[in-house]
Amino acid sequence: MKKRNVAVLTAMLCAGMTAGLFTGVNAKADGVKLVFAQDLDTGEKANNVMNEILSEYTEKTGTEIQFESLPSADYRTWLMTQFAADQGPDVYTGIIYDMSSDYQSGYLSNFKDLYDQESAYDTGKAWKDTLPDYIRERMYLTADDVPGYPTATAVVRIFYNKTMLDQVGAEVPETWADFMDVCQKLKDADITPFAFPNATIGDLSWLWFNNSVCSQMDPGIVDELDVSGNGYVELAEICKGMDEGKIDFTDENLKASFELMKDFSQYWTSDYNGLDQSTAVDMFARGEVAMVQAMSTKLESVEAVVGDSFEYGVMPVPVITDETHEGALGKSVILGGQPDIIFGINKSLEEDEEKYNAALDFVQYMSSPEIQLRLAEELCRIPLANTVELPEKLAGFKITEEPLRMAWYTGINEKLRNYFHRAGQEYLSDSITVDEFAETMNDSYKEVLDEIKTENGWSADNNYGM
User: Fold this and answer.
1) β-pair partners for 295
2) From CA 91, how far away is CA 359, in angstroms rounded?
3) For the chain, percent of residues with pLDDT exceeding 90
4) Tens-digit pLDDT profile for residues 39-92
5) DSSP for 79-101, written as a single string
6) Residue 298 falls within a domain, yes or no?
7) Angle at 116 between CA 110 and CA 120, to 5 degrees
8) Residue 351 pLDDT more than 80?
9) Which residue segment(s) compose the domain that 122 sits in?
10) What is the largest CA-CA distance in the chain?
11) What is the CATH number of the domain that holds 434?
12) How far apart are CA 326 and CA 217, in angstroms?
């Protein structure tokens, strides 16, 4: 990948604040202190960059920001503990599934009216119109309920060694059948096709690939489960669908997706169930394997090691066509690409005009083109605003796929992810059959969703809180 300098966008700061819950927000808010929480697990650099941005914001506005940055494993636990004690942060970020749940629990202020106004830092159109259509649609839980504003995402791609592909006479594959053919050519040439980390749930490839593959091979289930009609399957809709027997992992489409992944595993390093993501990415960067799957945030570290030693690129999960599975979607499904850095405002701030206005100004600053571009250039986060030009080095991460309309394995909770990962390890190592794996997933889904229903007070009698 080649780099070029990209001119940094200048933030457009309005003299007046956009209309919203309150009016007359001042550019300066001396004496106001906000607690801001964010899950940052991309290393020391990410925290340093964020602290620089927050310091600059305080200098611009006078608003003091107390930054609570927590590891992923502790973040949600900390948040829920804080809210249970009526001490939730004033502003915090989360992925769409968590923010939707928090909004429904009454923790978050509604951004619906704010979406219809301009942002103080990105003028010229309504705030909602600075978002791509599919992201904007995702943010509307209903026509009147919006839990926050998304600023960035992390797009997952397959990094490939083009030099190795050229060596075996292979083109960059677009379909799954071509993908398997390329893997076989690499294997025949004694080149390890894929580093597939699967030691823990934190290594993600098993979760990521299955999310895309299941979605491509059983596309009709979204229409069956989507009660709200917004084109996405929310957690409450998953609970309802499971109770009604519409989700069944012994279904032939889902079993076929598991078998496809098992067939793919013949092209992985032999130690995949003990391989961690960091090591897998390093193996690719050192030229020891032809492909690896990773987020856009890994691009900088890959570039630093690869240098000029070989040419490489990135590609989405290949398209599963009828050649591979009858009735397949015929489109790749994005991994990542969800609005997963969403800024929300604590609903309790609605009782404090000055603090609410300061929080809103802060959210709009953090979602501005200037800040989104900065995070793209420095941390390789993919900006969501359509008013930001993607830096050339991130061009391969431009989202062209179908959105993930049902997060089969990543969108439930950590307990389900653990069940799916452990059962997957057993299945891949031939300790259990595909039928046993499917039954295990049925049992795991039922157990976890029953707990979620109890926690939220959801049942068929109250239509699962919808």
Assistant:
1) 156
2) 7
3) 69
4) 865 567 888 899 999 999 999 999 999 998 887 778 888 999 999 999 999 999
5) HHHHHHTT---SEEEE-HHHHHH
6) yes
7) 90
8) yes
9) 33-153+338-395
10) 68
11) 3.40.190.10
12) 8
